[in-house]
Amino acid sequence: MNIKLFFHYISYLQYPLMIVALYFAFKPHFEGIEGDKESIDMVFKSLNNMLIFMGLAISFSTLQDTTKTQNKLSRKIWESPTKGKLFLIFMSIMTAVFIIYGMIGYLGETNAKLQELSIGIIVLGIGFIGMLKTAIEMFEYHRKDKHTTIAE
In whole angstroms, what is the distance from residue 135 CA to residue 139 CA? Predict the structure, then answer.
């Protein structure tokens, strides 16, 4: 079996992981949110679990084949030099915000719940690092201004 194809298939684990993240996002609504300490603890724990599973899902998505685009929208972004660069800048800023905010919260916060939530934000930021690398590869491979056909 082709190893690249094998990892491409593994990348589909992103979908069940994202479903688990969605479960944790809605879990407090399913169980009911009260104003007591237990409910607040449950909300923080669910939010942290959601961030961790989202980071894992994003990490698995980076295993996909970068020579193919998944849909027409991504093709439009990665083929355009301007749109691709803007999207990479946006992703870079988001990655930096998640990592920096997570580190500040983890190292500078004295509240244990917020420190734990910061771990989830850091995991999400790590997932974004991998996604940024994959996006750079897709941009390099798909942009029209870098690839010319033989007829040209």
Answer: 6
